[in-house]
Structures are given as C-alpha cells and as structure tokens.
Amino acid sequence: MAIHRTFDRRQVKRASGPDIDFCDGVVSTRILRALYDSEARLHELGVPHALVGGLAVGAYGAPRATKDVDFLVGEEAFVHHGMLVSFRPGLPISSDGVAVDPISVGNDEHFLRKEFESAATSHGIPIIGLEPLIYMKLSAGRHRDLDDVTRLLNATNEDPARAYLNENAPDLIPLLEKCLRHGESQ
Q1: Beta strands, E only, the chain
Q2: pLDDT in tens, the chain (186 residues)
C-alpha cells in the first residue's frame, strides 16, 4: 500500500514538473552539495547544461542512491584543438570528491540540443525533460538505466515517451515496451 501512495504522490508532483526534493533522504547530502556546486560553476562558465542521470530520475519521482552527478552539456563545455577535443578549463569534473560527468550531445542527437532552452528547473537546477531522459536511459541500455526507465514509467504515462521515441529514435521502441512489460509484472 505504501508503494501505491508513493506513486500517487509522484504523479501529482509530476504535473508541476521535476522536483529535486524527491532526492532528499535518498541521495547523500555530499552528492546533493556536489550537484549545486557543479551547477553553479557550469552557470558561471556560461555552459548550457541540464541535469540527467540518476538525480534527474529522482527529480521525476523515482529517487535512488547515486554516486555521481551527470549533466548534459552544450558544445561550450569543450575546446577543439584540431582533431583533439578536451574539456574547457574550469569545467567541473568533480566536486568534493564526487564525480561530475559532463555528457555531450551526440552528432546524431540534434533533438537533444533544444533541451537546454526548455529544461524545467527545480531549486535553480535545469533538469532535462522526462521524454529525453527516458531516451538517454534507453540509449545507454545498461541494467541500471533500464530499471530507471521502468521506475519512471511506473510513475507516469508512457505515451509521451512513445511519441518522443517515434519521432527521434524509433529503434528504441522495443526496449521501451520491454520496460513497460517489466513494470507491469512488478
């Protein structure tokens, strides 16, 4: 019964967007401090960014413990030296011993670039939209990522994710359906 109430609460919260407060009590304060510190640094550097990964999953109502902070970052996060690419000086890659992973938009992921402008915020943190988050998790395809998708789908309606994937990555629809079936069997 407690699980059902939790999902109801998440669905109510979902209507108003992601909320990083869902991570309180689940994610360590050290990780949350690294989140705020690294976001402030990215903002200061003028690097477009949006929270992704386990913390973003938590903000959409399916919190879990995580050991790092992941941001989707714009091209401004990198310096090109001919064929070599490196991180821009000052780009946070750790904070207080917590890894901060800047994730670039892939060449074939042009649809993710608009996420920087449309990201909802929670406590000043830009957070990627739910549908692109599901896309990124399905694309990664690791067990943890697929479990995250299942948990997100249990807390929301899969139709927006399906429409987003149909438009941007139809090859991932079978994996989405697998996560849906797995969620129904739980």
Answers
A1: 49-52, 68-73, 78-81, 84-87, 94-95, 98-104, 120-122, 125-127
A2: 333 323 333 443 444 789 999 999 999 999 999 999 999 999 999 999 999 999 999 999 999 999 999 999 999 999 999 999 999 999 999 999 999 999 999 999 999 999 999 999 999 999 999 999 999 999 999 999 999 999 998 877 656 789 999 999 999 999 999 998 877 776
Domain boundaries, the chain: 2-185
**CA 185 – CA 83 distance, rounded (Å):** 48
Are the beta carbons of 104 and 82 closer than 8 angstroms? no
Distance CA 84, CA 97 (A): 27
Single-letter amino acid, residue 88:
R
Type of residue at 163: A
d(CA 128, CA 116): 8
Neighbours of 84 (CB within 10 A): 7
Cβ distance 115 to 103 under 8 Å? no
Q: DSSP assignment, residue 76?
A: G
Residues in the chain, overall count: 186
* Residues contacting residue 143 through CB under 8 Å, at least 6 positions apart: none
